[in-house]
Write a structure and sequence with these properties.
Pfam families: HgmA_C, HgmA_N
EC number: 1.13.11.5
Catalytic activity: homogentisate + O2 = 4-maleylacetoacetate + H(+)
Strand content: 25-35%
Strand order of the largest sheet: 20-13-10-15-8-7-28
Helix content: under 10%
Radius of gyration: 22 Å
Largest sheet: 7 strands, antiparallel
Low-confidence stretches: none
Number of strands: 28
GO molecular function: homogentisate 1,2-dioxygenase activity
Cofactor: Fe cation
Mean pLDDT: 96
Structural class: mainly beta
């Protein structure tokens, strides 16, 4: 049985624990979880008790992230880490180029070299902030054609929001297994170790590395108690462990660089756990879209799935926004997104189909590609979309032929040097707005 076939078989029928931010608990072997205390004198079944803290001990209870792990060997039992090559992975602060006010768009990443796994296939487009100061974010893309065999990754700099665009992923984490297909997103919290196996011959997608406060569900305000992403639709893994003793490379991203150590065992050896610092997977098609039933296109913030709050209420370090299938019924309304300039900076990607404000096809906005509209850059529908929407019959219209998303951030995104000169950077992106000439008739 091939590695892909084995991964598919493993991914079939995975069990989950539902609910975003819950205090989950799970044990792969009955009796592995202690009762009445977190760290008994002797943990059950000869396991080691260990706490993984994603927040400071003294942060308010509502913002405190921690999970107790009951594992075969403690994480402390490892040799020294040594610096290893970063490949095409970059981190904040981004200083290779200067922030660019121009509108930029990229085609998908080219095919990876043979033997490229998820980690070696990470390619950084840009970002902002400072990883060591735990502020800001980074936009990465990945392309892979091999599993991470005897290789495990963890990110001390931030949490990873993985957005598959092509090919499914089997995520083996310390806390259990998750399956992420195109149309899903997977969240790996800061510091959680994981390995990526492929469910198809190749895989491609996007990653938002969030250095700041952990993603949470946005407040709903006047919307009420329900809508947007429902907490019950986020699925956490159940405990599953590896008890293998052979060399395993463990790679840690720390303050922007990759560090490697070779363990004599797999660190994915957690037999039981409880807490709320957990991975999740979420099906974007379950997003409960809220929209206008009278007139005008609502602001895109109405499509926010997850948000990383900053020190200023309402001004996110990064928002994750999805443009999911929905009905458009607005009367006397230009229905695609309106022309605008925004204090926030927007990176947009396309998972499938076409986006309703941009022309698809070769040289256009295509799945696997992405666009960057930095702070106050003027953007909106291209000329072809404007002409079509301005003359369209305003009958109810179902938008269900595309799935797009946006990473929106309070700070400008500075492109990496490799992104600024990449062969797949589209030249002449500004041309899509040519022909929007004056129609003024005083």
């Amino acid at each position: 049985m091939s590695g892909i076939e084995q991964a598919r078989k493993t991914a079939e029928g995975l069990e989950h624990s539902a609910g975003f931010g819950n205090q989950h608990s799970s044990e792969a072997v009955p009796g592995a979880l202690p009762h009445g205390r977190n760290s008994p004198q002797r943990a059950p079944l000869g396991l080691y008790a260990e706490q993984l803290s994603g927040s400071a001990f003294t942060e308010p209870r509502a913002h405190n992230h921690r999970t107790w792990l009951y594992r075969i060997r403690p994480s402390a039992a490892h040799p020294p880490f040594v610096r290893t090559g970063n490949g095409a992975l970059r981190s904040a602060p981004f200083t290779e180029t200067v922030p660019d006010p121009n509108r930029l768009r990229w085609d998908p990443l080219p095919e990876p070299a043979p033997g490229t796994d998820f980690l070696s296939g990470l390619w950084t487009l840009g970002g902002n902030g400072d990883a060591a100061q735990r502020t800001g974010m980074a936009v990465h893309l990945y392309h892979a054609n091999a599993a991470m065999t005897d290789r495990v990754f963890s990110d001390s700099d931030g949490e990873l929001l993985i957005v598959p665009e092509h090919g499914g992923l089997l995520l083996r984490t310390e806390l259990g297994l998750l399956r992420a297909e195109p149309g899903h997103v997977a969240l790996i919290p800061r510091g959680v170790r994981f390995r990526v196996e492929l469910l198809d011959a190749t895989a491609r997608g996007y990653v938002c590395e969030n250095y700041g406060r952990p993603f949470t569900l946005p407040d709903l305000g006047p919307i009420g108690a329900n809508g947007l992403a429902n907490a019950r639709d986020f699925l956490a893994p159940v405990a599953a462990y590896e008890d293998v003793q052979r060399p395993v490379e463990v790679v840690n991203k720390f303050c922007g660089n990759l560090w490697s150590a070779t363990y004599d065992h797999s660190p994915l050896d957690v037999v039981a756990w409880h807490g709320n610092h957990t991975p999740y997977v979420y099906d974007l098609r379950r997003f409960n879209v809220i929209g206008s039933v009278s007139y005008d296109h609502p602001d895109p913030s109405i499509f926010t799935v997850l948000t990383s709050p900053s020190d200023t209420p309402g001004l996110a370090g990064v928002d994750f926004v999805v443009f999911a299938p929905r009905w458009l019924v607005g009367e006397d309304t230009f229905r695609p997104p309106y022309f605008h300039r925004n204090v926030m900076s927007e990176y947009m990607g396309l998972i499938e189909g076409a986006y309703d404000a941009k022309t698809a096809g070769e040289g256009g906005f295509v799945p696997g590609g992405g666009s960057l509209h930095n702070m106050m850059s003027a953007h909106g529908p291209d000329r072809e979309t404007f002409d079509r929407a301005s003359a369209a019959e305003l009958k109810p219209q179902k938008i269900d032929d595309g799935l797009a998303f946006m990473f929106e951030t309070r700070w400008p995104v500075t492109a990496t040097g490799q992104a600024a000169v990449a062969d797949h950077l589209q030249q002449g992106y500004d041309d899509v707005w040519q022909g929007l000439s004056s129609n003024f008739r005083p």
